[in-house]
């Protein structure tokens, strides 16, 4: 089992080395692959990255624990995110090409001519991205603990962190793209194989043990507003912008999003695995371990090692993409005056630090990071009104965007502190409405006199 696991990780590193072939020089080549990813690589990088370690562990774990209700929310969010990116993705690519952008703040700084706006968006994005690394390491910790229970966990997580660092140091985003192909092939293959064997060995009667279902009252207004906020927010995630900038053209983006819902075939299969384990009464220490427990029940040892490697790769590829999103936010948009070589040099140090802090957070289970994760989409979606204004409102100014962002933050904070429910509507949607309203009013009261929209500039 361990040998098969290590063989898959070695193969992934070999692929990352191979990805160096044809890689260009400079920050744009390193962080967004020089905008040269073809349709196939872009598809695996952008669409496949939607499905992380939480998909293979958290989704069946939730079903196993009696939480089938959240499946509707998840399906709704993923299905709506695809058409949102189908429409906005090509425009994000065109806007990035127009201004030579590598990051979200690059675009806003160039279009609105504001260093303050650039730094505010960069610092906000960094704060919101920090918990993502810890989430991936938390899932990796669960797998590695089962694979090598006698090895100290800090040592295991250090090894996982070094593999991730190897990806990003070898070839930047190109390495993430190429390894994503292996990750997706193994992930989908593992899900199909384990679910097929589970269906073939389906128990005729449910086990007498009953798994207690968590009682979490989630109203329809909250579910619908959350689907809406997360689908819109998905288009504004920093690493997703990096993926879009890496595409060769808008047609590749549109084609990838048109095919994106095909990936959802994995969810009925994961549900079948979870229900199989529950009916069989399979002993599971934690609900999140249900997929791996089922794999151990139906597969030989070496195949279980491959499945575990697929799960870990799902986390490592996400980690590498978040590294490549956070590093330029700091070295390009927060730290002043770094040239291209210095950006890449400092970026490597930033990525190593991010990996170390993420692993430490997973070991310590820092409550603050978990809290930050709950507000990820609340905050990340707030750059959307500014981007839409850049597309269509030439009179919108940097001051108006900053005022809108401040209004959103104050609205969300006020709701949290006052305990206001507002009918159960997601606070992120309230913030988004406040953001757009303030931006519109500011633009009307104090219009930018010499501005031109992205659509006008593209002619």
From TrEMBL:
One Pfam family this sequence matches: SSF
Chain ranges passing through the membrane: 29-48, 69-89, 120-143, 155-173, 185-202, 222-246, 258-281, 301-330, 350-369, 375-393, 400-418, 424-442
Keyword Nucleus found: no
Alphabetical list of PROSITE patterns matching this protein: NA_SOLUT_SYMP_3
Membrane protein topology class: Multi-pass membrane protein
Main subcellular localisation: membrane
Record keywords: Membrane, Transmembrane, Transmembrane helix, Transport
Compartments where found: Membrane
Family that this chain belongs to: Belongs to the sodium:solute symporter (SSF) (TC 2.A.21) family.
Designated name of the protein: Sodium:solute symporter
Organism: Novosphingobium pokkalii
